[in-house]
UniProtKB/TrEMBL annotation:
<protein>
    <submittedName>
        <fullName>Formimidoylglutamase</fullName>
    </submittedName>
</protein>
<dbReference type="InterPro" id="IPR006035">
    <property type="entry name" value="Ureohydrolase"/>
</dbReference>
<dbReference type="Pfam" id="PF00491">
    <property type="entry name" value="Arginase"/>
</dbReference>
<dbReference type="InterPro" id="IPR023696">
    <property type="entry name" value="Ureohydrolase_dom_sf"/>
</dbReference>
<keyword id="KW-0479">Metal-binding</keyword>
<keyword id="KW-0378">Hydrolase</keyword>
<comment type="similarity">
    <text>Belongs to the arginase family.</text>
</comment>
Amino acid sequence: MNLAIFFDPLREELTAASAASTTLANYATRFLDSFPDWRVADLALIGLNEWRGSAGGQPEVHGADEVRRRFYQLQKGTGSLRIADLGNLRPGLTLEDTYLRLREIVATLLEHNTVPILLGGSQDLDYGQFLAYETLERPVSFAMVDSRVDMAEHDTAPPEDSHLRRILMHEPNFVFNFAQLAHQQYLVAPDVLAALEKLHFETLRLGQVRDDIRQAEPLLRQADFVSFDVAALRWNDAPAYYPANPFGLTNEEAAKLAWYAGHNDQLSSFGLYGYRPDHDTHGLAASALATMLWYFIEGFYHRRNETDFQSRRFIRYAVGLPGSPAKLVFYKAKRTEKWWLEVESLADSAVKRIVPCSYEDYFKAAQGDLPNRWILTQALLG
C-alpha cells in the first residue's frame, strides 16, 4: 500500500539534522523529499491536525510540529532507534473520512509490525485508531488516560466528548477489556463510572495513580493500544488544553505512564492527543509531550518479549484457596519481576486467559482472598 498519498512532508526547518550527532534528529528517517520506508522501521510517527471533532476548533499552529521541534533535539536513548516520521496526515473531506483514513493507515502498519505513534488532534481520533484493530479479527484491550471519561450521550456533544462511548458501542463488538486511568472523580458523572463497573472494566482514579503509580502498570500492560489525552496533565505542567485544570498528572507521572505503555510487549499503537499550541506560550507542554514520546520509545526498546509462560524465564506459583476456584496460578518473570494471573472460565474450562497483575494480587490470593482482577476477568470471559 502506498501510504505516501495520505501525508504532507515536513517543513524543512523540522528536518534539518542537529549539530549534536547524539540527538534524535540524526536517527529518525523523516518525510522531506521522499517518503520513508516504514516497513523497516520499528516505530512510525504520524502528525495529526484534525480538530473537527472538538468544540474548541482548530489551533492556528500545527501542534505535532511544535512537539517535533523539541523531540528531535532530545538525546538518543537505548536501542537501534529505527523511527520513520511519516509527516502530517492529510485530513479527509469529512471527519468520518479522517477516521477511516486513520483506520487504513494504522491497520497497514500493524500488519507489518510497525508501531504507529499518533500525535496531535482531538482525542476522538482514537476512534480511527480503534477501528484498525477490527482487521485483527480477535478481541482487543485498550487503555485511556484522561481527566474525564468521554461518554457523553446527548446528540449535541462534540465527538471528543463521546468517542469512548462510540468505541464501546461499536458493532461488531471486539473489545475484551478497557481501563480508564487518571480521571478526576469530580469531573465524571456517577452513572458513567457505574456503567464501566457494570461492564466489568477497571478504573484507576488520579488519586490512586498518585498514591502508587505502579497500580497503573498492569492495566497498561494488558492494552493493545493506548489513547492519552494531554488534558490528563495538570495545567501548570502542560498548559495546552481548555478549560484549564489545576489538578492532574505531573509531567514525571505522565512520562512514567508513557514508559509503561512502551514497555508493554502487547501494545501495538500509541495515541497522544489534545495538544493545543495556542495555549502553550512558552512551549512547556510541547517539551512535556516530547519527553513523554522519548520515554515511550525508551520503554519500547526495553521490551523483553515476556509471553512464553512455560519457559524458564518465568516462575510458576500455585495458590490454594478455600472456595471456588480451589487454586489460582500466577507467573512471575524472573528478569523484570512482573506478575501475571491465569484465569480459567468457570463456565468453560477450555477458555482461559493469562492477564497482567501485580504482586499485591498474588499476596491477596496467598491470604485466601480472590483478587478483584480475577473476578473482573472471570466476568469478561463469560
